[in-house]
Amino acid sequence: MAFWLDLMFGNPVGLLSMIVIFSTFGIMTYLMWMFIVKSAPKE
């Protein structure tokens, strides 16, 4: 576990890849939320 933490956050390449993964997850969540809000039936 310590090896993976050092690999992910210990060097700039691992940190950048984690930033890319989390930002991709955030963008996907935002797009799904927007789709759900826009496709909700109007009252």
Give me a quick take on this structure.
The chain has helices at 2-9, 12-38.
Q: How many β strands by DSSP?
A: 0
Overall average pLDDT: 88
Share of helical residues:
over 70%
How many angstroms separate the termini? Answer: 51 Å
What is the SS-derived class? mainly alpha
Q: How many structural domains?
A: 1
What is the overall number of helices? Answer: 2
Rg, Å, rounded: 17 Å
Q: Could you describe the largest sheet, including whether it forms a barrel?
A: none
Shape: rod-shaped
Q: Which percent range describes the beta-strand content?
A: under 5%
Q: State the low-pLDDT regions, or none.
A: none
Task: Give the helices and strands as they follow along the chain.
Answer: HH
Structure commentary:
This protein has 43 residues and is mainly alpha-helical. The protein has one domain (2-38). It has two helices and no strands. It has helices spanning 2-9, 12-38. It is rod-shaped, with a radius of gyration of 17 Å. The protein starts with a helix and ends in a 5-residue tail after the last helix.
Name a few traits of the molecule:
single chain; 0% strand; 43 residues; mainly alpha; 2 helices; 81% helix
SSE map:
Elements: H1 2-9, H2 12-38
